[in-house]
Design brief:
- The chain is an alpha/beta fold and 212 residues long.
- It has a single domain, classed as Rossmann fold (3-Layer(aba) Sandwich).
- Strand 7, helix 6 and strand 8 form a beta-alpha-beta unit.
- Helix 3 packs parallel to helix 5.
- The structure holds adenosine-5'-triphosphate.
- The site of adenosine-5'-triphosphate has 12 residues, from strand 2 and helix 1.
- One of its GO terms (molecular function) is ATP binding.
- It comes from Sorangium atrum.
- This is ABC transporter ATP-binding protein.
């Protein structure tokens, strides 16, 4: 399987945020997008996962368009946003059940349940998102993104708000996914974290991606 974004243009608030972005991510690859605040990193991820329609360009997973794709196609990707205010009244368990229902994914199995422990989410699994700390909500959203064991995991600022142990767990997750032949796309402004991943680092600047 391969993620391919070609010629992505997106204009927001009268500004060309993305002006011809090309991005490819294949099996076992980790694509890291860095860039200044407001560079358009989150916008790019939202386009890649199909939440935001590009003005021009296309995003495909193994040749199949992500935008308007059937549930079966969208099940192949998981997305952990950096905005954690959504769905405050849901418990973490309910959020994961909702994602499972939307993706029509198989029952949450032992491999997925192991991440409840590994992400330290067991202690707040039955709590509402509104009652959690920022870092706990980040962990909850990551857990929800792993529902359905997606081939492509898209994470916006994974280490933002996480403690050192949480950041190590994210590195382990990425390493495990690499070993399993899965792809990961993430943004970060954490240079040490980007170096620790050892992925393919690109910089988003002026609406375009360039090699680091
Ligand atoms: N829904 C929206 N409506 C209008 N403008 C938006 C919207 N989302 C983002 N923008 C604008 O697009 C630009 C890029 O924002 P984006 O959040 O993608 O940047 P970023 O690189 O992720 O920044 P940060 O590092 O601060 O998270 C900003 O100028 C922002 O104001």
């Amino acid at each position: 399987m391969t993620l391919e974004a070609t010629g992505i243009h997106k204009r927001l608030s009268g500004r060309d945020v993305l002006s011809g972005v090309d991005l490819r991510c294949g099996p076992s690859e980790v694509a890291v997008v860095m860039g200044e605040n407001g560079a358009g990193k989150s916008t790019l991820l939202r386009v890649v996962v199909g939440l935001l329609e590009p003005d021009r360009g296309a995003v495909t997973l193994s040749g199949e368009a992500v935008h308007g794709a059937a549930v079966a196609a969208r099940r192949r990707l998981g997305y952990a946003p950096d905005a954690t205010e959504a769905l405050p009244d849901l418990q973490v368990a309910e959020l994961c059940a909702l994602v499972r229902a939307l993706k029509q994914a198989p029952p949450l199995d032992g491999a997925w349940r192991a991440w409840i422990e590994r992400l330290g989410a067991a202690a707040f699994y039955r709590q509402r998102l509104s009652g959690l700390s920022f870092g706990q909500r980040k962990r909850a959203l990551l857990l929800a993104a792993l529902v359905g064991d997606p081939w492509l995991l898209v994470i916006d600022e994974p280490t933002n708000g996480l403690d050192a142990e949480g950041a190590r767990t994210v590195l382990e997750l990425i390493e495990q996914r690499r070993a399993e032949g899965k792809a990961t796309l993430l943004t970060t402004n954490d240079a040490a974290f980007a170096a620790a991943i050892g992925g393919h680092v690109r910089r988003l600047n002026g609406g375009r991606l360039s090699e680091e």
